[in-house]
């Protein structure tokens, strides 16, 4: 494991001592405290839900709106919610807890039990999606006995990142883009920040929102920024037609050029780190530089990717559905 600054504890607390538990594969994993991307990551690595006992409701909502629900119908029976009551979680008889390091109270409660606990961070790697996934996989893959699959995925993802960088270097200019997370009202939006810089820069665009944190942006400010492209992520039910058909947006260049796009939905909402990252980067590149990417067949790319790296055979309709996500996928509660 790399010497990284991640708050991860795989331990059993016994009389104040921390004893690593490295050999027994967990069968009843409870994911709580906000680690929404982890269930899909574990399911792709393992090819199902067999190790999972409880997942966040927001994770299950995304899974039910994706091809994952068709491939793994047992998702329907998987317990889910936003329960942060440690006593209730213990009733599920977990043999591994996973929590978000930002949820200090719950993580501390988990670590005080005799249950091995992994406390994971999303911002340790400066919101670099690839490095975040690498850090997570270095912890999760060995526990599940899936190191080989994880290494193959990381090699491929890095190659996609590098190939796009080579193509972008040949372009004369980059489009100015923004990512909308959700709308507070018809004139106020939460945009950019966290993983937006990585995703836009690595796919050949310039992020017009200059903020490391998610920023509150008024419609008047969007008029001033006047982006060439607007992306809408999957943590909301806002759809491109909501913007394209609104008279309030008609003066924005992205709307005039009809370059407003909803993020794809693969195994999870890919603005957050997910194993769909190669697909998302490629999809973003095709919209950022449509002329130089016209030969890329995204449906074939997705089918080949899932088959080669996760032994999942997607039908044409399932692969096409990735790039036409359901509005319901944006429901997080």
TrEMBL record:
Residues 29-292 form the Fe/B12 periplasmic-binding domain. Gene3D superfamilies: Nitrogenase molybdenum iron protein domain. Pfam families: Peripla_BP_2. It comes from the Bacteria. Signal peptide: none annotated. PANTHER family: MOLYBDATE-BINDING PROTEIN MOLA (PTHR30535:SF34), VITAMIN B12-BINDING PROTEIN (PTHR30535). This is Fe/B12 periplasmic-binding domain-containing protein.
């Amino acid at each position: 494991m790399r010497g990284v600054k991640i708050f991860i504890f795989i331990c059993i607390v016994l009389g104040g001592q921390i004893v690593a538990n490295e050999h027994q594969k967990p069968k009843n994993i409870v994911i709580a405290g906000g680690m929404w991307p982890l269930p899909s990551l574990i399911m792709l690595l393992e090819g199902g839900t067999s190790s999972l006992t409880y997942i966040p409701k927001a994770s299950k909502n995304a899974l039910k709106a994706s091809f994952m629900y068709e491939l793994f119908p047992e998702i329907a029976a998987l317990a889910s919610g936003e329960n942060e009551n440690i006593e209730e979680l213990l009733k599920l008889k977990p043999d591994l807890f996973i929590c978000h390091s930002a949820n200090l109270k719950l993580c501390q409660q988990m670590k005080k039990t005799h249950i091995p606990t992994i406390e994971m961070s999303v911002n340790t790697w400066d919101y670099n999606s690839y490095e975040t996934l690498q850090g997570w996989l270095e912890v999760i893959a060995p526990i599940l006995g899936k190191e080989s699959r994880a290494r193959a995925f990381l090699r491929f993802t890095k190659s996609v990142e590098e190939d796009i960088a080579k193509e972008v270097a040949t372009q004369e200019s980059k489009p100015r883009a923004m990512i909308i997370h959700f709308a507070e009202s018809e004139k106020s939006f939460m945009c950019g920040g966290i993983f937006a810089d990585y995703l836009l820069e690595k796919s050949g665009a310039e992020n017009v929102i200059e903020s490391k944190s998610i920023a509150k942006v008024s419609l008047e400010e969007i008029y001033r920024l006047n982006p060439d492209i607007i992306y809408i992520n999957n943590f909301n039910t806002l759809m491109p037609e909501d913007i394209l058909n609104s008279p309030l947006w008609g003066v924005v260049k992205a709307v005039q050029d009809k370059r407003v796009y909803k993020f794809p939905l693969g195994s999870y909402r890919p603005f957050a780190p997910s194993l769909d990252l190669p697909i998302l980067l490629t999809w973003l590149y095709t919209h950022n530089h449509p002329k130089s990417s016209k030969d890329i067949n995204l449906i074939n790319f997705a089918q080949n990717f899932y088959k080669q790296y996760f032994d999942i055979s997607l039908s044409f309709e399932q692969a096409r559905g990735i790039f036409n996500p359901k509005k319901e996928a944006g429901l997080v509660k």
